[in-house]
Amino acid sequence: MSEDIDTRRKRLYMRSIRRGIKEMDLILTRFADAHLAEMEATELDLYDRLLSENDHDLYQWVSGQAAPPAVYAGMIAGMSEGMRRA
């Protein structure tokens, strides 16, 4: 049985706020607070895959130290924008 969309959003939120490094906790929590509730199934799929990536890689992508994989570029751009506003 697959999980319903609300349960999935809650699971992804928990994965966003409890990461391996504090910087990614802050960045992903802010992103999840701003976008998770409005994401549709395909966006949730992508975000789920993104959350499986290594935190150090994610931080380099968000901070502009390395280019993200093309599949994540739009989502990473949103995170980077949120980071600059903070």
Automatic annotation (TrEMBL):
Superkingdom classification of source: Bacteria
Gene Ontology annotations of biological process type: tricarboxylic acid cycle
Keywords of the record: Chaperone
One Pfam family from the record: Sdh5
InterPro entries: SDH, SDH_sf
Gene3D superfamilies: Flavinator of succinate dehydrogenase
Family: Belongs to the SdhE FAD assembly factor family.
Protein name: FAD assembly factor SdhE
UniProt organism field: Salibaculum griseiflavum
